[in-house]
Amino acid sequence: MPAQEHALALDSHSRFGFRRIRVKTANRLKYFFRKPHNIILVLLFVSLAFLTLVPLFSLIRDTFIVHPSEIMSVRGAKINDVTLFHWKKVLLDGTKSFKLFYEPLWNTLKVSLFSSIIAIFLGGSFAWLVTRTDMAFKPFISVVFIFPYIMPSWTLAMAWLNFFRNKLIGGAPGLFTALTGIETANWFAYGIFPTSVVLGLHYAPFAYILIGGILRNMDANLEEAALILKASRAKIIARINLPIIMPAILSTFLLVFSSTMSAFAVPAFLGTPVRFQVLTTQLYRTLNGLNPGYGYIMAVVMIVIGLLILAVNQWYLGKRKSFVTVTGKSSNISFIKLKKMRPVISGAALFIVAAIAILPLLTFVVESFILAPGNYSFSNLTTQFWVGLGREDIGGGEPGILLNKSVYIAFWNSLKLSAVVALVVGTVGGLAGYAIVRGRGKKLSAIVNNLAFFPYLLPSMAFGAIYLSMFAKPIGFFPSLYGTFFLLVLIGSVKYLPFASRAGINAMLQLSGEIEEAAIIMGIPWRKRITRILFPIQKSSFLSGYLLPFISCMRELALFVLLITPANRVITTLLFQYNEKGWNQWANGINLLIIIAVLSINLLINKLTGASIDKGIGS
Amino acid sequence: MKKGRMLALALLLFVSMVQVFAAPSQELIDAAKKEGKVVVYSITSRIANAAKAFETKYGIKVEAYNLKDGELIEKVTREVGGNISGADFVICQDSGRVYGQLIATGYLVNFVPDSLKNVIPAQYQNPLVFQFINKVFIFNSEKTQTPVIKNVWELTEPKWKGLVQFKDPKLEGVNANFLTMLTSPEWSAKLAKAYEDLYGKKLVLTTKNAGYEWIKRFFQNGLILGNSDTTISENIGIKGQKAQTLGLFVYSKTRYDEAKNLALLPMPDVQPFSGFMYPAFLQMTKNAKNKNAAKLFIEYLLTEEGFAPWSKDVGSYSSNPTIKIDPDDKPVSYWAPRLVFEDPAFLFENRADVEEFVNTLSN
Fold first, then answer.
1. ipTM attached to this prediction
2. With a CB-CB cutoff of 8 Å, which residues 158-177 of chain A face chain B?
3. What pLDDT, on a 0 to 100 scale, did the predictor assign at position A209?
4. Is the overall model pTM greater than 0.90, yes or no?
5. Which chain A residues have a beta carbon less than 8 Å from that of B96?
């Protein structure tokens, strides 16, 4: 009996215990989902897994199958056969592999490294000058410095050619040679040097924005404390400033390195004359040519490199805690006095921004008005390419830009696309930043954080190629999206999410948790906490999460080039087409239009909200 | 003299009669107007002008898009393969890929208008050729009007190092096709002979055959690769250059001579070839939505009126022999023995190898 009783007791005990566990899990789940940030994290996890991991697997699968255009090179194979052909050819075919893959890979790494260094050095210096010193002309410089980022990157390459082309490619000499009589060296005009410089200049605003954001928000108390303790200027920079901006430098490095790695048009224009090859130029050729399989392998390699850099970045950040720089307390920024050097430094800075930002603009203006190439005399000026009806003997009767229907359609498509993408990305990214920071330390938060950043590492053109093959047919309840505006919005949103989520995360990291806790104690609901407290405090950071995707989208080419159907083409694909055809007057004019449009929108938002991209992505 | 004039008159009469016969049926016009719209992808930008004229004539809206050859093939593969509506018909080039990837798969459908079946030579009817385009050796003619080379092997000599331009064969399929054709038995034999004719000795091979050998030496002699034939034509043709330059690019670019102040002349008598010629095809897509409008437009493009945007300049040759060519130009029959033509079967088998070979050549 006692034994039986005991058993019964045990039984009831265990049954009771089981129920308790069930109730406990249910409670835990309920508790888990009561926190808004957990709901956001779960939603993001599911959708990002679908939008980034599935494509990754699809990409890897593509490296093993025979595509329609490969029946010419994979002898005797049928479409969709499984094959190791691509891997063998790319990795193990002696000289052919060397020229196809290893040499371009090495070139890619060099270009990415050099341009990252240029971008960080230039952008960082300007960020420091603008935020921490009493340099003159600051408002002007800080606006103009970001111009190169607004211009589609290859148009800077075109400007480089306008200036420095030499007799290697013949034609009219570049402006530089025409003015000075000095013939530029080949290494200076084409190949790795100009490619790295142009990409470095194009992405320097990244460094400027990221590093500047931190420097601007940095509590001057730290520096003052150091000053009081009689630390030298050098020591302050080395022990206080640098460690604080180190995460921004690393982020910049990661972003610029990945971006330049997947840049296509700049090396295509500056490298072709001397047959300088990088992975993307090979990628473009293979994806549009006979061997897309090779291209998919190169894309996988680029992603792996990106992941390695990301890992190093995280390992470094993991070693230390983030700095809270916005405490809700007032902080003053004291400007370093440049004293005697002020006019010299200010003048030099002004000269540099004029050279990298204003001068290319001027060449675009001039080039869009000249008729016979290379002839800059007054009689050769024409308004043909702006308001002309089209002449049969120039560019096959294409009408001038302002009378050109396709320009208007493409421009409108671009604006629409960029606005929608910016709205989606800015909002999702801001919420992601909030959720990731609030869930910090949890596995889910770390996973979502990485997933939200992952699209950045996918080379744009390959990303486009994967979305093309994924969404060209219906999957489950998803209809075929090929040729729809929605597909462009989708890929733009995923690709630019990292900008916004980074902006959001950085904005949230700077905010001391006490601010929201105080509101929770006061019983203020979540939505109000976000819209009335958190967002307003870090408004400029969050808004940059909208602005940066907008601008990037307006001048994006590689991401959309494969997905665009002629009916929904955007302005950059049209621009690139004109550039490729050598119809430079149209191209230069359209480029001007893009820059003017982006600048006016930036200005408008600045006037309305006080935010602007040059004010910083807030960290 | 009188006889000649009579003959010309007879020819004119014949041409105008053909034109009368060439009119599309009212039935087709009505059906096309009912559809009211047609979408075309084209490798030639001048389609925009033809589209405008077609719109005015029939009141049928045309969406014409200018794409690069590889791009067009990819788009059609996707769209027809995925049964997504895109182009109703295309003007495409790059024989090897068009045959292998689009025609063999049934993605493109041949259509020859009844009125033209007796006009267009049979060998151009399947697949229907829209026009031939030629890329020839063209030199800067500011200082001299006499051709600057007589034999293509001269281009492998130090004298021409860094002075010759050619569009990157990676960027345009037809350029890769041209190089591929040089490695064919026919052309490599001709190249070997040309070498002997020029230097009086046998060519010593370091590669598979004389075709590969010429490509190798041509590329390694500082050949400048360009992104666009238009840009190359400007680079070569601008006046006031010190060095004598030449290029291998689309003959029709010389039409810009006057407006852009260029000095360009073709060299039609280089041994063993003066360049290459390739067809652009007119094909309907399998899933064309506006079939009748497409048919009407195809027919229109093969008439003198529809071909006007092309025929008024050199370097475009309609498959319809009754359409007059530019008075400064010569007909296909003149160019045929002087230029390298595409052989789709040979291209399909060998293009990948040649592309790979070219990719290994550095400066």
1. 0.81
2. 167-172
3. 81
4. no
5. 72
